[in-house]
Each structure stands twice: as structure tokens, then as C-alpha cells.
Automatic annotation (TrEMBL):
<dbReference type="InterPro" id="IPR005843">
    <property type="entry name" value="A-D-PHexomutase_C"/>
</dbReference>
<keyword id="KW-0597">Phosphoprotein</keyword>
<feature type="domain" description="Alpha-D-phosphohexomutase alpha/beta/alpha">
    <location>
        <begin position="220"/>
        <end position="320"/>
    </location>
</feature>
<keyword id="KW-0460">Magnesium</keyword>
<dbReference type="InterPro" id="IPR005846">
    <property type="entry name" value="A-D-PHexomutase_a/b/a-III"/>
</dbReference>
<feature type="domain" description="Alpha-D-phosphohexomutase alpha/beta/alpha">
    <location>
        <begin position="54"/>
        <end position="195"/>
    </location>
</feature>
<dbReference type="GO" id="GO:0016853">
    <property type="term" value="F:isomerase activity"/>
</dbReference>
<comment type="similarity">
    <text>Belongs to the phosphohexose mutase family.</text>
</comment>
<dbReference type="InterPro" id="IPR016066">
    <property type="entry name" value="A-D-PHexomutase_CS"/>
</dbReference>
<dbReference type="InterPro" id="IPR005841">
    <property type="entry name" value="Alpha-D-phosphohexomutase_SF"/>
</dbReference>
<dbReference type="InterPro" id="IPR016055">
    <property type="entry name" value="A-D-PHexomutase_a/b/a-I/II/III"/>
</dbReference>
<dbReference type="Pfam" id="PF02880">
    <property type="entry name" value="PGM_PMM_III"/>
</dbReference>
<dbReference type="InterPro" id="IPR005845">
    <property type="entry name" value="A-D-PHexomutase_a/b/a-II"/>
</dbReference>
<dbReference type="Pfam" id="PF00408">
    <property type="entry name" value="PGM_PMM_IV"/>
</dbReference>
<keyword id="KW-0413">Isomerase</keyword>
<dbReference type="InterPro" id="IPR005844">
    <property type="entry name" value="A-D-PHexomutase_a/b/a-I"/>
</dbReference>
<protein>
    <submittedName>
        <fullName>Phospho-sugar mutase</fullName>
        <ecNumber>5.4.2.-</ecNumber>
    </submittedName>
</protein>
């Protein structure tokens, strides 16, 4: 056996000795035995599981469930919880007992990881508060602020594949309940590594002295969210379909609907209850082809006006409208379309409320530039941020923020993160107000175009088996900037690694075209994908679509050339 092979086996045996989970112990023991018998496939699998550590960063942890340092499991979570506890205690400086609130969704092992975390936080001397049951991510984000906690943990992998899970971290105090950013992620990661280097997680102190948050906390979230858009009189008679995508959104959303006064939807019954196996979808993400097919079937049967979907942890929102020209008669709106409509609504409300100087709209740099047109129209400030709500939520004076990946922040006074439930309520408010004027949501979209311009957006996602492919493409594009995309010349290239405007440095290339179009290229932060974002502004809707199609064709040709 090679030295590398022996090192992998040694690491596997050390991991096995400290793993408290009988399922992953049996899984790992089987791989070790098969490797000892000379099984090459088992040896390769074992090597992959110990090829490194699942990295802790600004997205926390996220990865496939299974035994090993390169997977999500109870050993890794214990190390993360102990490392986070050390960071929180260090930050508090010994002057008081800091607190951490823990939430979890319906994915496999989410409850186990949350329970382990609560016991380890309590054992480390923190005040640990576990949410009363599986709940949406925005309830955890709300709880961090509502309880004045020093930190929060949400066990979720959001819309990732069924066998993934994750560990998302929020900070209170000066961070105001937002997700972590640097340097906090690096400091937490250093504490986690120290715990991992020490060895046996079984030696970490645990305590059952954690608290369970009262139902009144969920009641407070429901009340605050219902207040986002109380139902107008025109809400009666609205027919709409809702899917929770096998996630945890429905129980909370149903309570918010009742409090706000909206009619209940036609539920997609096969997807309404939490189920971590996600039996009806290959990929539990409303953006993925086929994920909303059952919702569209229900909409056709019920002759609905609208379809609304949350992702499994209910921090994202998808919306679809009737369209006789679309396959099956229904069309899912893009994340940019939803964001622009909700941003328009937020801007009107800000003006009506006589918002103070500095009130702003914000979106990630890959989201539609149409939001700046809205902000300018209403005299609001506008901020562009790096991707992710850890950045969007920190925009000065924010009254609304969004990113094109179906994330919307509509109530920053209570939740400093994307929130698919409050966004659903805001959308229902917008739709029912339009119905009162005899208008459909499609008509409101047309009014937006006529008011602010004909914006169109597209995206290309290149999924790879080897993530080094992405780095190679980005390097080639940096070494020799393209001079054009299709028939349109490139005016300038912004490389965010060099620092651009007031944006933090990032692995992003932004290409500005001579016709005003924009192309942004970046690696995905959570998946093995290269993402390319296309934005155009046309003289009409047909012109915008034609420009977008040409830009898409040119961008794909460029990727073929450098890939």
C-alpha cells in the first residue's frame, strides 16, 4: 500500500474512533474493510472522503451527508459547534454569558445536528436556545435579532440536492443578525481547525442545560411578517396555488396568511409536508426544470391566478403566472422580474412613508440593473454588493434588497436575510392591489417596462465534475480579456480581484459591452458550477429579447473557446 493510501486509512480509523453516529460508523467501517480487501472503488471513495476538510466559509458549511472530513456528519458538526462556541466566547470577552440560537429544517439529520449543537454550546458555557421544532430559515434569522442573541445557527442546505446538508451562521450585536462575512469566517474556521486537531469530539463537554424557545417567538415572527402587507379588501376571490417543495414553509406561511387576511391557497398536497427525501423532485429548487410541474398541474385544475413556491427552507420565493404562449400555459417569472416588482413596491412605500435621507434599494452585482432605475426614479440611494445576503443585508439604509436567485429582503427591520415567506406576503399584497384595479400581474410587469425600461436577463450555468476546470476558465479569461462577445465589442472589463469601486474583492469578472449590455462571470459559491449572468436593456420588449438571445449565443461561443 502506498504512503498516501496508508495515510487515508489512518485518518479513517481515527475518524471512526470518534464518530458518535452508528449509521456513518457502519458506512465507514464497510469502506475500510473493502479497501483492506483491495477494492479499488472503495479505496477511491475513501480517499475522496478524506481528501480534505469540508471548508468553513462565509456560507458556513454545506456538503453531502456521509462519513469523513469531506462530508457533512456529526463529527464535523461537533467540531464546527465547538469552534463557533470558542469564537463567540472570545468575542464576548468574558464580561457576560453570550447566547446562541439554533434552528433546523426538515432535511435528513438536521434535527440531530441541531441537538448536538445545542448540547455543545451549553457545554461550552453559552446560553443555548433551540427553536421549538423544524422551522424556516427566516424564523431563525428573526430569532437572532428578536432574542438579542450573539449568534445563530441554521442547519439547512436550502435548495441543494436531497443528500446534502449545511450549517449557516449568523451574528448578532454590531452584525445585526446578518450572516457572517470576513474576517469572522476565518476566525471561526481557525477555532474549528484547532478543535479538529485536538482529536476526539467525544471529549468535548456537553450539557442538556439548553433552552427551548417558546412558541411566542414564532408568534412574533408571524405578526411581524403579516404586517408586511395586510390583505386589502380585494384579496377575496384570489385563487392561487402554493408548494412548499417538501420543505418547512407551509406551517409558518399558513399562520401568516391567516393573520394577514389572505385566502388560503390550493396546496400541492404531495409537496406540502416536510420530507427530506424530496420524493417528487430530482432537485428541490424552484428554478430547476420540472420542480414546479406539480404546482402547474394544480394551477390548471383550479384555474388559478397565481402560483407561489418556496424552496425547502423557505428563504426563497418563486412565482408563476398564466401564459397561453408558455408550455403548459404557465410561465415562471425570473428572479429579476420578481425582484424588480417587489423593489418597485418598496420604493413607492418608502416615498409614501417619507423615508429618511439615505434610504436605499440594494441588489447583488449579478442582479438586474433595473433596480437602480427604480431607485433613481424615486430619489432613493442604490447599492450594488457582492452576491449573497450576507452582503446585501449590510447595505446602508436598506429598505429592500434582492438577488436574482429568488432571494428577497422585504422587511429589514425584522429579518436581515432573504425571506421567502415575507416576500410571498408582499407579492400577494401587490397582486391583490392590482386585482382591485382590474389588472393581472402580467399587466403590472408591462407597466414596469413602460415606466423604467425594457430590461431582460439570462443566465448560463456550466456544471463541472472537476472544480479545477472553473479556475482554469477564469484564469484564461483574466490572462487575455475577450474583445467582443458575438458581434458586440467589449468596452471595459472589471476584475473584482483587483478591487472595483467599493466592492470587496471577489472572483468575479464583469464585462461591459458598447451597447450597454453586461456579462458577469463567476464561480458558484455553493455548487460546482460556473455562472454567467447576462443583462440587456432594449427599446422594446422584442428588442430586449433579441439582444439577450444574441448575447447568450455569443457568451456560449466564448465559453467553448476558453473551456
Amino acid at each position: 500500500m502506498s504512503a498516501d493510501g496508508k495515510a487515508v486509512l489512518d485518518a479513517a480509523h481515527a475518524w471512526l474512533a470518534q464518530d458518535p453516529d452508528s449509521r456513518t460508523r457502519a458506512e465507514l467501517q464497510g469502506l475500510i474493510e473493502e479497501t483492506d480487501r483491495g477494492d479499488a472503488a472503495a479505496a477511491a471513495e475513501l480517499a475522496d472522503r478524506f481528501a480534505g476538510r469540508l471548508a468553513f466559509g462565509t456560507a458556513g458549511l454545506r456538503g453531502e451527508l456521509g462519513a469523513g472530513s469531506n462530508r457533512m456528519n456529526r463529527v464535523l458538526v461537533a467540531q464546527a459547534a465547538a469552534g463557533l462556541a470558542a469564537f463567540v466566547l472570545e468575542r464576548a470577552g468574558g464580561e457576560r454569558t453570550p447566547s446562541v440560537v439554533i434552528g433546523y429544517d426538515g432535511r435528513r439529520n438536521s434535527d440531530v445536528f441541531a441537538q448536538d449543537s445545542a448540547e455543545l454550546f451549553a457545554g461550552a458555557g453559552l446560553r443555548a436556545i433551540l427553536l421549538p421544532r423544524m422551522l424556516p430559515t427566516p424564523v431563525l434569522a428573526f430569532a437572532v435579532r428578536h432574542l438579542g442573541a450573539d449568534a445563530g445557527v441554521m442547519v439547512t442546505a436550502s435548495h441543494n440536492p436531497p443528500n446534502d446538508n449545511g450549517y449557516k451562521v449568523y451574528l448578532g450585536g454590531a452584525d445585526d443578525g446578518a450572516q457572517i462575512v470576513s474576517p469572522a469566517d476565518l476566525e471561526i474556521a481557525a477555532h474549528i481547525q484547532r478543535i479538529a486537531d485536538a482529536g476526539d469530539v467525544g471529549a468535548l463537554p456537553r450539557s442538556l442545560g439548553y433552552e427551548t424557545a417558546p412558541e411566542s417567538l414564532v408568534d412574533a415572527y408571524v405578526a411581524a411578517t403579516a404586517a408586511v402587507a395586510p390583505a386589502p379588501e380585494t384579496a377575496g376571490g384570489l385563487s392561487w396555488v402554493y408548494t412548499a417543495m417538501h420543505g418547512v414553509g407551509w406551517d409558518t406561511l399558513s399562520r401568516v396568511l391567516k393573520a394577514a387576511g389572505y385566502p388560503e391557497p390550493v396546496p400541492v398536497t404531495r409537496q406540502i409536508d416536510p420530507d427530506g427525501t424530496f420524493p417528487t423532485v430530482a432537485f428541490p429548487n424552484p428554478e430547476e426544470p420540472g420542480a414546479m410541474d406539480l404546482a402547474f398541474e394544480a394551477a390548471r385544475r383550479s384555474n388559478a391566478d397565481l402560483v407561489i413556491a418556496n424552496d425547502p427552507d423557505a428563504d426563497r420565493l418563486a412565482v408563476a403566472v398564466p401564459d397561453p404562449h408558455a408550455p403548459g400555459g404557465w410561465r415562471r417569472l425570473t428572479g429579476n422580474q420578481i425582484g424588480l416588482l417587489l423593489g418597485w413596491r418598496a420604493a413607492r412605500l418608502a416615498r409614501e412613508a417619507d423615508a429618511p435621507p439615505g434610504a436605499s434599494l440594494a441588489c447583488s452585482l449579478v442582479s438586474s440593473p433595473g433596480l437602480k432605475a427604480v431607485a433613481d426614479h424615486y430619489g432613493l440611494d442604490f447599492h450594488t454588493t457582492l452576491t449573497g445576503f450576507k452582503w446585501i443585508s449590510r447595505a446602508p439604509g436598506i429598505v429592500f434588497g434582492f438577488e436574482e436567485a429568488l432571494g428577497y429582503l422585504v422587511n429589514p427591520d425584522t429579518v436581515r436575510d432573504k425571506d421567502g415567506i415575507s416576500a410571498a406576503i408582499a407579492m400577494l399584497g401587490l397582486v391583490t392591489e392590482a386585482r382591485g384595479r382590474g389588472e393581472s400581474l402580467s399587466r403590472v410587469l408591462a407597466e414596469f417596462d413602460a415606466t423604467f425600461g425594457f430590461f431582460a436577463s439570462g443566465q448560463i450555468a456550466i456544471r463541472v465534475d472537476d472544480v479545477s476546470t472553473i479556475a482554469r476558465i477564469m484564469t484564461r479569461l483574466r490572462e487575455q480579456h475577450p474583445s467582443s462577445i458575438g458581434r458586440v465589442a467589449i468596452d471595459r472589463v472589471d476584475d473584482l480581484l483587483d478591487g472595483v469601486e467599493d466592492l470587496p474583492k471577489g472572483d468575479v469578472l464583469r464585462l461591459w459591452m458598447t451597447d450597454g449590455s453586461r456579462v458577469i462571470i463567476r464561480p458558484s459559491g455553493t455548487e460546482p458550477k460556473l455562472k454567467i449572468y447576462l443583462d440587456v436593456r432594449g427599446d422594446s420588449s422584442d428588442d430586449a429579447r433579441a439582444r439577450l438571445a444574441a448575447l447568450d449565443e455569443g457568451a456560449r461561443a466564448l465559453l467553448d473557446e476558453v473551456g
